[in-house]
Specification:
Elements lengths: L7 E5 L3 H13 L3 E5 L5 H8 L3 E5 L7 H9 L9 E5 L4 H9 L4 E4 L4 H23 L1 E4 L2 E4 L4 E4 L2 E3 L3 H12 L5 E2 H8 L8 H15 L6 E4 L3 E4 L8
Parallel strand pairs: 1-2, 1-3, 3-4, 4-5
Antiparallel strand pairs: 6-7, 7-8, 8-9, 10-12, 11-12
Length: 237
């Protein structure tokens, strides 16, 4: 029986004290860690290192974390890698901007290393579950999505989805319980094509809901932010 390889984490922060602390802490938990203090070199290094998760400072000179995250999200080899932002900016607007750029989580400085490790472990566990689901089926309620066959069934009957609708539904199902901003959906479903507007996301979600019929309420609208596949279906009284 082969041993499981340690998960690889890339830490990008222009402060060596921060990267040294995180590298030491994460290595002590069994992760393989590489740290970069030069933001300009981070994306190129990530393409070679191929991390399982990136911890990324937001406020850095020349190239900030949000710009780097957007670059990662448009790279075919890195677009699915989870990103945790570290930042001294803790306002709601800053968090939303970070999530809209494609980040999976957001930790404010100063931070607890114990909390950060727990968040890293949680995200990696969740992405591992997604990987297992891809090899089989994704199922929520009476909706079943077969990745290999590129087929969706509702109550056991196949339904006709466009390629974009399939990709949108798959992303929502894979990231069940996590809010997906319109910006994030544009990047991951439409590859952030410049001619696509955010209202296009709303139109496709509406059409997808129509095709899902009585299972449409699994897709929740998060007002002013985006959409989420519910953890539990709302019970109508």
């Amino acid at each position: 029986m082969s041993e499981t390889k340690p998960k690889k984490i890339l830490v990008v922060d222009d402060e060596p004290d921060v990267t040294d602390l995180l590298a030491y802490t994460l290595k002590s938990k069994g992760f393989t860690v590489e740290a970069i203090n030069n933001p300009n070199a981070s994306v190129g290094f990530a393409r070679t290192f191929l991390p399982d998760l990136v911890i990324l400072d937001v406020m850095m000179p020349e190239l900030n974390g949000i710009q780097i995250c957007r670059m990662l999200r448009t790279d075919p080899a890195l677009k699915s890698v989870p990103v945790i932002f570290l930042t001294a900016k803790a306002e709601e607007g800053d968090r939303i901007q970070g999530l809209e750029s494609g980040a999976d989580d957001y930790v404010s400085k100063p931070f607890s290393t114990k909390e950060l490790v727990l968040r890293v472990q949680s995200i990696l566990r969740r992405t591992g579950e997604v990987g297992q689901a891809e090899a089989k089926l994704l199922q929520i309620g009476s909706i079943t999505l077969d990745v290999a066959r590129h087929e969706v069934t509702l109550h056991g009957r196949a339904i006709d989805l466009t390629a974009t609708e399939f990709k949108l539904l798959r992303l929502l199902m894979e990231r069940r319980g996590r809010v997906q901003t319109r910006e994030h959906l544009l990047i991951n479903v439409w590859n952030y094509e410049t001619e696509i507007e955010t209202r296009t996301v709303d139109t496709h979600v509406r059409r997808l809901r129509e095709k899902l019929g009585d299972q449409a309420d699994w897709i929740e609208t998060i007002r002013g932010v985006g959409y989420r596949m519910a953890e539990q279906r709302a019970v109508n009284v």
